[in-house]
């Protein structure tokens, strides 16, 4: 797939920390309950740490107690792309930034959360950058 933001592996390695690179470019997962935004309640917009594309809003963030920031809907349905992930002996839906293809996390459905979409976008904190709302 071709993305609006295309960089070589060497460019990504130079721009991202080793931990950011592992999650964003190698589909890694940060440890549960340790991410910067897991329990954050700050109002604002969450953007892709790799390219700055706006992905989620704090108004769609909810407490799922799963160990990672959870959102029930992306900021814009075209901001993320969903890809079938059959790694680790499971079938899941991977969430990637639609602008640069960076791995963000996974989305799950039908878990019974009291959210408008019954979806949980389980996103790695290290894949995001929060831009607090002004005021």
From TrEMBL:
Catalytic reaction annotation: L-methionyl-[protein] + [thioredoxin]-disulfide + H2O = L-methionyl-(R)-S-oxide-[protein] + [thioredoxin]-dithiol
Domain of life of the organism encoding this protein: Bacteria
PROSITE patterns for this protein: MSRB (PS51790)
Record's keyword terms, sorted: Oxidoreductase
Domain annotation MsrB: ranges: 9-133
Entry-linked InterPro entries: Met_Sox_Rdtase_MsrB, Met_Sox_Rdtase_MsrB_dom, Mss4-like_sf
Pfam families xref list: SelR
EC number: 1.8.4.12
PANTHER family named among the record's database cross-references: METHIONINE SULFOXIDE REDUCTASE, METHIONINE-R-SULFOXIDE REDUCTASE B1
Name recorded for this polypeptide: peptide-methionine (R)-S-oxide reductase
């Amino acid at each position: 797939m071709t993305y609006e933001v295309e960089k070589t592996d060497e460019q990504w390695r130079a721009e991202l920390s080793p931990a950011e690179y592992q999650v964003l470019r190698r589909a890694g997962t940060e440890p549960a309950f340790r991410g910067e935004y897991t329990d954050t309640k700050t109002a604002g917009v969450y953007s892709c740490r790799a390219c700055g594309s706006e992905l989620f809003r704090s108004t769609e963030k909810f407490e799922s107690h799963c160990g990672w920031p959870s959102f029930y809907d992306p900021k814009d349905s075209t901001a993320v792309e969903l890809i079938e992930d059959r790694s680790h002996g499971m079938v899941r839906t991977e969430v990637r930034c639609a602008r640069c293809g960076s791995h963000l996390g996974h989305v799950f459905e039908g878990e019974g959360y009291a959210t408008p979409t019954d979806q949980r976008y389980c996103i790695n904190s290290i894949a995001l950058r929060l831009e607090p709302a002004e005021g």
